[in-house]
Amino acid sequence: MKKTDILVTGGAGYIGSHTLVELHNSGYRPIIVDNLSNTSLENIKGAENIIKNKITFYEFDCTDEDQMNELFELENNIEAVIHFAAFKAVEESVREPKKYYDNNIGSLEVLLKIMKKYDVNNIIFSSSCTVYGSPDILPVSESAPFKKAESPYGETKQLCEKLIDEVDLNSISLRYFNPVGSHDTCLIGDCSADKPNNLVPIICEVAGGKRNTMQIFGNDYKTIDGTCVRDYIHVVDLAKAHLAALNHILDSKKIKTAYNIGVGKGVSVQEVIDFFEKINDLKISYKIGPRRAGDVEEIYSDNTKINNELNWFPVMSFESALKTAWIWEKNK
Ligand code: NAD
Ligand code: WQD
């Protein structure tokens, strides 16, 4: 039987590579476009090793309309696009906002234009819980308003969702909370070129000796132990949510919606470090430092909508996320 073709922009990246595996395992044919600006070919090889198959890969920048045109000419059976391609470093976006507007918004604009031209009508967009800013009600649900974004990166996610809302396409925006961990083979993971800014990769660098120590950014928040609270979602569960969204969008005549993807439970920074030490039997050197500018005190997901409408539930443990994150770091 002919497989359904799915274009995966940014498919060589952290979340994209995990999603390729789930797409293949469910009988789809993923096609990657990635300019390798923030990843490595090894991630594609890793995914190919896991699925024991080659994956079609186009290496170019998807803000390039001519090359996108050529791709859609060659691959004329694409049924849906999962759009991961974007820059994601929050701090860098504050220093270089234009880089983020150009790439994150520019790539989506080109994609929407080409999809319309080639009559491809289904898009799944990588959004983020950052669209909520600092929410008034916890857990935060999809009906919460977009508050002021904490960074230009956050602004790009808000604007992209709005752009998608305005076009006549079936669309699902997936608002990820904090993705962590790796596939259990540890053959794919986060290959970002720059020094990490996210908590779990930083803990792993301290564990591996790349950093001597780290800071907890503030312990005077109004949370269970004074440190910030987040919702850490295993990347394999997150990849499977894309599959659920894809099945749903392909089954729907008309759909325009957004889903949160988290675990639905808040975990403090202190708890993450303590748990990492316990399950990996390691000591992490850390100090309490000042608050980090722009940090939200506490945010975690209300998953009711995706549970009810897509029958998606997270099943992977936090233990597995922290173990695979550490193995990925050691193998790098
Ligand atoms: P990633 O950097 O690992 O993956 C993004 C991929 O897109 C990379 O492989 C990069 O080379 C590619 N890319 C970037 N711009 C491109 C362009 N113009 N043309 C072609 N390829 C391009 O990041 P990730 O963690 O896998 O994130 C994927 C998506 O999810 C991004 O849109 C990100 O903003 C979003 N997101 C990530 C997180 C997170 O914490 N990782 C949380 C919420 C949302
Ligand atoms: C988590 C917690 C820090 C590092 C970011 C983006 C968000 C989404 C996910 C893309 C915070 C604390 C961290 C350190 C620390 N990405 N921390 N010491 O900020 O929740 O979310 O990534 O869409 O948009 O903003 O994630 O991993 O940076 O931080 O104490 O060295 O860990 O203060 O409370 P964040 P994070």
Describe this structure in words.
By secondary structure, the chain is of the alpha/beta class. It has a domain of about 220 residues: NAD(P)-binding Rossmann-like Domain (Rossmann fold). Helix content is about 40%, strand content about 20%. It contains 11 helices and 13 strands. A 7-stranded parallel β-sheet has the order 3-2-1-4-5-6-11, with helices on both faces. Strands 7-10 form a two-stranded parallel ribbon. The chain has a two-stranded parallel sheet with strand order 8-13. Helix 5 packs parallel to helix 6 and helix 7 crosses helix 11. The model has no long low-confidence stretch (mean pLDDT about 95). The site of UDP-4-deoxy-4-formamido-beta-L-arabinopyranose has 18 residues, from helix 7 and strand 8.
Number of discrete helical segments = 11
Q: Note the main sheet.
A: 7 strands, parallel
Kindly report the name of the CATH homologous superfamily of the domain at 4-181 and 232-262 and 301-315. NAD(P)-binding Rossmann-like Domain
Level-2 CATH architecture of the domain at 4-181 and 232-262 and 301-315: 3-Layer(aba) Sandwich
Quaternary organisation: single chain
**Quick one: overall form?**
globular
Structural class: alpha/beta
Helix content: 40-55%
Count of distinct strands: 13
> Order of strands across the widest beta sheet?
3-2-1-4-5-6-11
Mean of the pLDDT scores? 97
Q: Can you lay out the helices and strands and say which pair or pack?
A:
Elements: E1 4-9, H1 14-25, E2 28-33, H2 41-51, E3 56-58, H3 65-74, E4 78-83, H4 90-95, H5 97-117, E5 122-128, H6 152-166, E6 170-176, E7 178-180, H7 199-208, E8 214-217, E9 229-230, E10 232-234, H8 235-251, E11 256-261, E12 267-268, H9 269-280, E13 286-289, H10 304-310, H11 318-331
Parallel strand pairs: 1-2, 1-4, 2-3, 4-5, 5-6, 6-11, 7-10, 8-13
Antiparallel strand pairs: 9-12
Helix pairs in contact: 1-2, 1-8, 5-6, 7-11, 9-11
